Amino acid sequence: MENRNTFIAPSLLASNFLELGKEVDMLNHSEADWLHLDVMDGRFVPNISFGLPVISHIRKATTKFCDVHLMIEEPEKYAEDFKKAGADMLTVHYETCNHLHRNIQQIKDLGMKAGVALNPHTPVHLLENIINDVDLVLIMSVNPGFGGQHFIQKSLEKIRQTREMINHYKAHALIEVDGGITVENAGSILDAGANVLVAGSTVFSSKDPAATIRALKHA
Ligand SMILES: O=C(CO)[C@@H](O)[C@H](O)COP(=O)(O)O
Ligand SMILES: [Co+2]
Which positions are annotated as binding a divalent metal cation (predicted)? Predict the structure, then answer.
């Protein structure tokens, strides 16, 4: 993975679950690079989304990179199951991991890329001792649990701090940003140093999702 490329990762959380096959097919034919799959347990976040069986089916229907965002307690209990379901990248929340280094190692040993996500209130400097071990840092630009929220402006500063840290430690991690991304704010998020843009409602609420993905890609 080149770390200055831009990847677009539509979040299926905002898609029409009754038409999931069609939605995945639309994404297969679009300029989307990754599929972002939000898994919520109703404990770490106050919402429940979808889990392993749904991801297994999506895996069979797509050749795109499956980027699984785990918003669950005790993610280490399920890492192997998500590998079997077809995850290419597994991102765990810093806030759910007492043994983050062990969790990241477990994900990599299972053959997946490993990411760490930070809630809006969690400072970037806490990643200093793990930055060389992760493939991705996910900066949450909304409080996790729901799609359709507004981008928290402070996230721009956190993206810049993460980019500085990656440069300082000569790390290879990508910076993914998730929550409230629109065609209008995508440019400033990329300028701050992001590589991967997650977009749920912006893509799936638009009249032409494929055109919106293209617009984000060329923001
Ligand atoms: O992880 C999450 C929410 O917790 C996200 O991936 C959302 O699904 C993004 O949705 P939008 O803010 O783009 O509507
Ligand atoms: Co997400």
Answer: 36, 38, 69, 178
Task: Measure the CA–CA gap between 213 and 104, rounded to whole angstroms.
Answer: 30
ipTM: 0.99
Tell whether 79 is covered by a domain: yes
Q: Is 141 annotated as a binding residue?
A: no
CATH code at position 166: 3.20.20.70
Q: State how many domains the chain has.
A: 1
Ligand number nearest CA of 44 is 1
pLDDT digits (tens, 9 = 90+) for 76-120: 999 999 999 999 999 999 999 999 999 999 999 999 999 999 999
* Backbone φ, ψ for residue 196 (5° rounding): -120, 125
Does any domain span residue 2? no
pTM score: 0.97
Judge whether 135 counts as a catalytic residue. Answer: no
> Is 146 known as a binding-site position?
yes
